[in-house]
Amino acid sequence: MAYSDQRVLSIQSHVVSGYVGNKSATFPMQVLGYEVDAINSVQLCSHTGYKVFQGQVLNAEELKTLYEGLKINEIDQYSHVLTGYVGSESFLKEVVNIVKEMKQKNPKTLFVCDPVLGDFGVGYYVPKELMPIYRDQLLPLSDIATPNQFEAELLADMTIKTEEDALKCMDIIHGLGVKNVVLSSTELAERDDTLLLLGSQLVGDKKKIIKLEMKKFDAHYTGTGDLFTALLLVWSHKHPDNLALACEKTISTMQVILKRTLDAAREIAGPGKKPNVAQIELRLVQSKKVIEEPPTDVVKAVVIEK
Predict the structure, then answer these.
(1) Residue 2 lies in a domain
(2) Residues that are catalytic
(3) pLDDT tens-digit map of 232-290
(4) Nearest CA to 210 among 222, 218, 200?
(5) Torsion angle (degrees, nearest 10) of CA 299, 22, 85, 70
(6) How many CB atoms lie within 10 A of CB 51?
(7) What's the predicted TM-score (pTM) here?
(8) Comparing C-alpha atoms, which of 5, 12, 229 is closest to residue 112?
(9) Which side of the chain, N or C, has fewer Cβ within a 10 Å radius?
(10) Is residue 197 part of a domain?
(11) Is 19 part of a structural domain of the chain?
């Protein structure tokens, strides 16, 4: 297969119904013109917010077998590799081996890593043993890392209470070898109805700090982190030296999708009723046009050069 600069290997979870993991990430990247080959770390009937979530878990040997098949057929040429939820230590170690091999074969391969570990209010939702593998083996291979605030604190071994803390935290992650670090959402905004994205990009000997405020919706969504990382992969590839613009297009798209999802869920649930877990599934297919052409007037990033 001829090499393409818009071909992604995405390794993360899969659900039959709903939108998390590869189900949340694949469609937006395809809409934006990227070929996506998906390897599923787990395959479940639905995400874990439902009363039943059952299915299969891929092991490290099965992952190795799939990747070896791609190599034998000579269809293993990728411009990007994207990783999300992984549930076992052995599987994650095999992901490390694959990323290393891909970068050795083509040093221009870009690796976007969402170090999925957990979140506030939930704690870890993967084995704790995965954290040092991300920190010591996978993040040093990453071109972009997109931890949430909880994950960033674990990886940097520090607590984030202020913006200065967040900047220090991102510097620690830079120190692991990551050029672009984006804290996809933090609770550091001045208003309760607002979330703050913070990013840090190394360009030569300079560093650009990105700050972007976004509306916080009164709903519990799933798959938003997977959607965020997929969109950021595309827009940072299209705007390689402009992380601010990439984040603006990513968050603008997401804000429209989240509002559309919540409006539709409330309409289905009925007046005064809280939408249930099925009703609040992301409206991705209905948002094809906004994915292709993000609005320019929803959010605006502030850039500080250091």
Answers:
(1) no
(2) 226
(3) 999 999 999 899 999 999 999 999 999 999 999 999 999 999 999 999 999 999 999 99
(4) 200
(5) -130
(6) 6
(7) 0.96
(8) 229
(9) C
(10) yes
(11) yes
CA distances from 30 to 25, 271, 292 (A): 9, 36, 10
Alpha-carbon distance values, 108 to 79, 142, 267, 282, 290 (Å):
7, 12, 47, 33, 29
Q: Is residue 110 part of a domain?
A: yes
d(CA 16, CA 8): 21
Q: Which residue has the tokens 């798959």?
A: 223
Q: Residue 101: which domain range?
A: 7-305
pLDDT digits (tens, 9 = 90+) for 34-88: 999 999 999 999 999 999 899 999 999 999 999 999 999 999 999 999 999 999 9
The whole-angstrom separation of Cα 112 and Cα 52 is 31
Under a CB-based contact definition with an 8 Å cutoff, are residues 99 and 111 in contact? yes
Which helix (H) or strand (E) element contains residue 83?
strand 80-83
Reduced to 3 states, what is the DSSP secondary structure of residue 72? helix
Q: Which alpha helices (DSSP H) does the chain contain, by range? A: 22-31, 60-72, 89-105, 130-133, 149-156, 163-174, 224-238, 243-269, 288-292
- From CA 237, how far away is CA 257, in angstroms rounded? 22
Q: Is the dihedral of CA 228, 234, 239, 241 positive or negative?
A: positive
Quote the number of domains for the chain.
Answer: 1
| 225 φ, ψ (degrees, to nearest 5) | -65, -40
